Q: What sequence folds into this?
């Protein structure tokens, strides 16, 4: 009996011939939702992010948090250490500018290599950037500010290797910023002060250069050229700014003996090197080579600048161009700098390659008595 009931119940549940009772039907209906919840269909894929999206979200979160923490740190320094905060801000901006300059120079060099472009075929701003950073294309010896900057950084890095030596580095950087820090990390006041110091150093060579010009006057064979040379030296000695035609009248003197580039004496080349902010402590043949290449680069820059036009330069570019050519432009009005730079270009663009010794001496002749240049 009991066995028959069990068989009937099993047939009622699983068999198709027997209809289940209302109790069994209700139990099955109640059991289905539970089974659905237990095993349910897989969730929609919209609820899950792909691995790439997860990484992007994580990076965005880290960047946002970093910016928040950095902002709090800046405000903390500004409130509690205002003087240090100024130095810290200048240092961080200097790092950004230094890196940007290096990347831009790299792009220009890559463009030159891919398209077989020479240094003098670049635009003025590209040439000037390379001169400042990589010292200009095929003239690696000339005025490499970037290489000097890298040398300073390497020196600081080497002396900071021993344990706790970095504190000594910070002290040295604070005490000797002009010698150990690169221009990107100078404060605005330091930039003006240090440029004045450098100009005072090159100005010390001016009397020596003018004295040599006076001594070679008897060696000039042409009487007319001797008279022009005497007049030019007299005007400069009396504080008069020479006219363009006064300088161009002496082109022949500076293309051959006694003032041609290949006829300059060692002492004169040393003085001219100091006037160009180049080291004078080299053998004569190296001094001559450096002066030639440096003057050639300036001559090529002048041609590119004449093509661009002085009016397209920013005020900072004008002052930088004047300072490179011998004028202390830090304390001269912008319009006066533009006028002086125009005079320089008239002289430079009138000279041939054999007459570049006159352009080299023009660093002194045209700048020494210009209004506002004496300090």
A:
């Amino acid at each position: 009996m009991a066995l028959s009931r069990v068989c009937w119940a099993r047939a009622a549940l699983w068999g198709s011939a027997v209809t289940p009772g209302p109790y069994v039907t209700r139990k099955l209906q109640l059991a289905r939702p539970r089974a659905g919840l237990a095993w349910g269909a897989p969730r929609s894929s919209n609820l899950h992010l792909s691995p790439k999206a997860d990484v992007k979200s994580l990076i965005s979160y880290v960047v946002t948090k970093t910016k928040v923490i950095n902002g709090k740190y800046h405000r903390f320094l500004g409130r509690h250490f205002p003087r240090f905060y100024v130095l810290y801000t200048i240092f961080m901006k200097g790092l950004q500018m230094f890196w940007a300059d290096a990347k831009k120079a790299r792009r220009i060099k890559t463009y030159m290599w891919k398209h077989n472009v020479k240094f003098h075929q670049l635009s003025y701003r590209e040439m000037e950037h390379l001169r400042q950073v990589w010292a200009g294309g095929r003239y690696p010896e000339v005025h490499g500010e970037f290489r000097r900057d890298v040398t300073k950084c390497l020196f600081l890095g080497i002396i900071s290797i021993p344990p706790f030596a970095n504190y000594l580095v910070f002290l040295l950087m604070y005490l000797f910023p002009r010698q150990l820090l690169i221009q990107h990390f100078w404060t605005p006041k330091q930039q003006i002060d240090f440029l004045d110091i450098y100009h005072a150093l090159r100005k010390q060579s001016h009397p020596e250069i003018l004295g040599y010009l006076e001594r070679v006057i008897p060696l000039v064979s042409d009487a007319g050229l001797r008279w022009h040379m005497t007049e030019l030296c007299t005007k400069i000695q009396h504080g008069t700014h020479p006219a363009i035609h006064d300088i161009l009248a002496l082109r022949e003197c500076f293309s051959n003996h006694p003032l041609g580039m290949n006829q300059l004496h060692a002492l004169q080349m040393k003085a001219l090197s100091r006037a160009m902010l180049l080291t004078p402590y080299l053998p004569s043949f190296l001094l001559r080579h450096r002066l030639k290449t440096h003057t050639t680069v300036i001559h090529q820059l002048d041609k590119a600048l004449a093509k661009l036009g002085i009016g397209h330069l920013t005020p900072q570019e004008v002052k930088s161009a004047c300072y490179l050519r011998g004028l202390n432009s830090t304390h001269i009005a912008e319009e006066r700098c533009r006028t002086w730079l125009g005079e320089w270009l008239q002289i430079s663009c009138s000279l041939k390659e054999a007459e570049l010794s006159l352009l080299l001496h023009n660093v002194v002749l045209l700048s020494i008595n210009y209004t506002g240049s004496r300090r």
Observations:
- Residues 75 and 133 are 34 Å apart (CA to CA).
- Residues 188-366 form one domain.
- Confidence is low (pLDDT under 50) at residues 1-41, 43-47, 135-144.
- The chain has two domains: 70-185, 188-366.
